[in-house]
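Changelog note: in this version the structure field was regenerated for every chain. One regenerated record is shown below for reference.
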Amino acid sequence: MSASAILLISVCIYLAIGVPVAFALGLATITALSLAGTFPLIVILKETFTGIDSFPLMAVPFFILAAELMSGGSLTEVLLRFAGQFVGHKRGGLGYTNVVSLTFFSGISGSALADAAGPGSMMIRMMDKAGYSRAYAAALTASTAIVGPIIPPSIIMIIYALADDNVSVGALFVAGLLPGLLIAVAMCVVNWHISKKRNYRGEDAQLTAADKWRTTWRALPAILLPVLILGGMRAGWFTPTEASVVAVFYALICGKYVYRTLEWKAVPDILSRSALLTASVLLIIGMSASFAWVLTIEGVPQAVANWIISMNLSPWMFLIVINLFLLVFGIFIEPLPGVMVLVPILAPVAMKVGIEPIHFAMIVIYNLTLGMITPPVGGLLFVTSNVSRVPLSELTRELKPFLWAHGVVLIIITFIPALSNWLPHVMGFK
C-alpha cells in the first residue's frame, strides 16, 4: 500500500476515534512514513518546522494579541451599545444588534470562535432576558460568527496566502469585505422573518441624537482598527506582517489611554492567552504542512489535478463540484488544516480552468468556515452550545433557516465573481 493511501486511511481513523485534528494529522503522517518505510521519520520534524518558518506567518500571533487587547475591558459593551442604537428599537432589535455587533467585532478578532465566546455570549444572555428563545439566540450567534474569518483581519486568509502564491494577504483582506457584509445582511433577513413570526419586539427606549453621537464617538477608535490595517497596507506604509504589529500598539493605546479599562496587571494574562492560542494555530499549521508534504511527494495533487482537468468541466460546473466537495470536507476538518491540505491541490486546477485566484480563495474560505456550524463536528456549535448552555440538539434545530441563508449567499458569491474581485482591483491589490 502506498504512503498516501496509508496517510488518508489513518487520518480518517484518528479523526473517527476523536483525536484532535492537529494530532490526527501528525499521527497519520508518522503512521504513513513508518509503514511505507520510504522516508525517515526525521522528515516530519523538518517539514513541520518548515511549515511555520515564514515571515508573513508572524502576523498571526500579533493579530491574536491585538484582538485580546481590544477585547479587554469595555470594548464589547461599547460595540454593543453602538450597534444597538441603530437597530435595537426595531422588531427583533436585539437580533439585529447581535448581527451588527458581531460584524464590527469580526474586524478586530479575525476569529469566529472569539466572536462567539466574547460578544456573542453576552448577546445571548441579553436576548434571553428580553424574551427571545435562548436556542434561537445561540443559533443566530453561531451563524453570524462566521463573518469573523471573512471580514479582515483574518487568520485563515493569512494561511491561505501562504498556501497559494497567486494571492496576497492584502488582496484577500479587501476581498472579504463585500462577502462578509452580504453574510451579515442574510442573517438580518432571517432574523426579520423569525422575529415577525414569533413577535420578538425591540427595545422601547430610543436614544437622543446627543446620546447617539456620544456612543458613536466612543466606539470610533475600535471601529477604525480595520480601516487602519487596510488603509496602511494600501498606502504602502506597512506590509501585512508589520500591520499586525501596528495593530498591537494601536490596541494597547486604545485600551490603556482611550477607554482606560486596560490594567497593566491584566497584560500577563492577555499575553498568556494569546500565546496559547498562537501555539494551537501554529501546531495545526506545522502538522498540516508535514501531512501535505507526504501527499505532494506521492504525487496526489498532480493526480487529482489531471483527473479533474480530464473531465473537461466548464468553469461553472467546476465551481459547483468544488462547492459540494468542500461542504462535505468542511464538516469533518477544521478550516486551518483544510486550507493547508486542499489549497495546494485545488488552487492550481482552478487557475487552469479559468477561475480567478481571489474569487476561488473566497469560495474555499467560506465553504470551510461553514463547516464550523454544520453537525456533527462543527467546532463553533460546541463553543456556542457551551457558552449559552443550550443542548446541541436544540441549537441544531434552530440553525436550519440560517444554513439555508448561508447556502443562498454561497451561491451568490460563487456565481457573481465581482463580489470578491471588484474591490481588490479597485484598490490596486494584485
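Spot check on this record: The CA atoms of residues 106 and 148 lie 4 Å apart. The longest helix spans residues 267-297.
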